[in-house]
Every structure is written in C-alpha cells, then in structure tokens.
Amino acid sequence: MASLTSDNEQPPTNSNSSSTDHVRKKKSLFASSPSSSRGNAASVPTRDGDSHPRWRSEKQQRIYSAKLIQALRQVRLSSSSSATTSSPTAQKRGKAVREAADRALAVSARGRTLWSRAILANRIKLKFRKQKRPRQTVIPAVTTVVTTGATSSRGRKRRVSVVGLNKKSLPTVNRKVRSLGRLVPGCKKESVPVILEEATDYIQALEMQVRAMNSLVELLSGYSTPGSDSAPPPI
Amino acid sequence: MSSRRSRSSRQTGTSMISEDQINDLVVQLHRLLPELGNNNRRSGKVSASKVLQETCTYIRNLNKEVDDLSERLSQLLESTDSAQAALIRSLLM
C-alpha cells in the first residue's frame, strides 16, 4: 500500500507518460467515451467549470484513470490470490473496489486538500502524524484556490447573492455545515470556510470519479456481452 | 481580495470569519450543484441553508452512485470469462 502511493508520487510527467504509453490503446477508447459522455451529460459542461478547472480537465481524467486502473489491478490480484473457497461476498469486493477508487482519487489530488489526506491517512493508519503536520500548510493553499475562484465568479454576468446568513439563522446554518463536514472525509472538526472549500473540491472529485467508473463499467460490460460486439457500444 | 483572504486566514482559528467570505464559498458551492430548480434563474438570491441541504444530499447521492458503480465493477471484474479476461488483462497491464 505504501508502494502504491510512493509510485504515484513521482513527478507527473514521468509516471504519466509511461503509464499512458502502456494504456495508450485503451486510452483512445477510454478517452473518447468519457469525453463524449461528458459532452452528453447534460448539466456538466454548461455549468461553470472555470472556477475549479482542476477536476474537469482531460489531463486530470487521464491521470485518474491510469491510477484507477492500477489500483483495480491490485485489487483484482489480491482478491484472486486470497480467495479461499469461493470469492468473498459481493459487498466486500465492492468495498475493496470503492476503497481502491478512493485511494486513486485521493492520490490524484496531489495532497492539497484535507479530504484526500484524510483518505490516505486512514488507509495507512498514520492518522495523527498525517493530519497534524500538514495543517499549517493547508491554509495558504485554501486561500489561493478560493481567491482564483472568487475572482472568476466576479466576472460572471449573473450575480447570485446569498440570503439567510443573518444572525438569527446562524445556528441552523452552523448545524448544516457541521453535518456537511461529517460527510466530507477529514472535516469533522474544521471551521466553516474550510468545510465549504473542501466540499466544493470533494464534489468535483466525486463527479470525476463517477464519470471515470461509468466509462470503465461501460467498457467492461461491452467486453462481457457474449457474441458479436468486440468494441464497446458507441456512446 | 488578497487582503481579505490573508486577514481571514489569520482569524480562521477563531470564529471571527467574514460573512463575505462565507457568501463567496456558498455561491461557489451553489454553482456546483445540479441546477434543478427555476428559483435561481428567476432571482439572484440563494438561501444558504437550502444550498447546504442540497449539498449534503448531492454528496450522499454521489457516494451512493460510486458505491453502486464499484459493486458493478467488482462483479464485472469477477465474472468475465477466460477469453475475455485475457483480453482485458492484456489491456490493463
């Protein structure tokens, strides 16, 4: 498990070029379906993607896809090697896949967000060391990201203002923010702006994860259907 | 903008957080949510608690979707038979 993260922590040009060379043929199938499915997914491209281009770029999708495939390969090998009688229950296998996908997602975040660090820390069980030390550096990273997001939001034609942040409703808002913080990994005890910032990043990362796994499922189910089609169905 | 950010970064440990900052973050969050309603088209105002509620729901939905997808993926990885498994293995490796 430590080797997985150390492999993927190499500078992105080297590792990604080598891995994408291996899976270049697969990427041509794989990248066409996510890009077309991203184009067809109604709400995604019309929404503002400029504020956080990180999770919507093609490059990020490739990076994540490569890591996901590596992680899934490891899950597959471990499950096939450790299968005693029959394979473990469907839930355990599904959970193992989910954990591998989350790990790949967290590594793709390059350690800049709280939730990604929390996911990785939970896996490696270095909980206290990993969460205490980067805490000092998280604030400048958050502020730079938020600044770029806010300036781009200033340029939009339609200004949306927020109501309901008055003093009376503050406890309600606080409660909701707390429950939101419980949903995002690693943000149970953070302050309100940190939770909001982490939530925006987490949502975009989850969306990318859903898109990538959808494409992978389509690809695999295209291969699993018996008989004629040897290519995945065009989407 | 940067001065506000640096001021708030020093104050993040306490609870004195500027409301504008929270406003901005809530607006950002609102933009990410799937725009189901027509209420945000008509007026330029969003309710903070509604945004937060929808965010919680949306994250739960996304998590559930990822869980379902990973279960399907695990089934697919297990159930492909040998000829196609060799094909997939050659692609994955």
Automatic annotation (TrEMBL), chain A:
Residues in the signal sequence: none
Amino acid composition bias (Low complexity), ranges on this chain: 29-43, 78-90
Subcellular location: Nucleus
Species, as recorded: Brassica campestris
Protein name per the record: BHLH domain-containing protein
Ranges of biased composition (kind: Basic and acidic residues): 47-60
Keyword check for Nucleus: yes
Top-level taxon in the UniProt lineage: Eukaryota
Region (Disordered): 1-60, 75-97
InterPro entries: bHLH_AtIBH1-like, bHLH_dom, HLH_DNA-bd_sf, IBH1-like, IBH1_N
Comp. bias intervals (Polar residues): 1-20
Residues annotated as domain BHLH: 157-206
GO molecular function, one term: transcription cis-regulatory region binding
Record keywords: Nucleus, Transcription, Transcription regulation
GO CC list: nucleus
PANTHER family found in the cross-reference section: BHLH DOMAIN-CONTAINING PROTEIN, TRANSCRIPTION FACTOR IBH1-LIKE 1
Pfam assignment, any one: IBH1_N
Main location: nucleus
Automatic annotation (TrEMBL), chain B:
Gene Ontology cellular-component terms listed: nucleus
Coiled coil: 52-86
Protein name per the record: BHLH domain-containing protein
PANTHER family the record matches: TRANSCRIPTION FACTOR PRE, TRANSCRIPTION FACTOR PRE4
CDD domains tied to this protein: bHLH_AtPRE_like
InterPro entries: bHLH_dom (IPR011598), HLH_DNA-bd_sf (IPR036638), PRE (IPR044293)
Gene Ontology molecular function: protein dimerization activity
Domain BHLH: 6-62
Lineage: Eukaryota, Viridiplantae, Streptophyta, Embryophyta, Tracheophyta
Gene Ontology biological process terms, A to Z: regulation of DNA-templated transcription; regulation of growth
Cellular location(s): Nucleus
Keyword rRNA-binding tagged: no
Gene3D superfamilies named among the record's database cross-references: Helix-loop-helix DNA-binding domain (4.10.280.10)
Protein keywords: Coiled coil, Growth regulation, Nucleus, Transcription, Transcription regulation
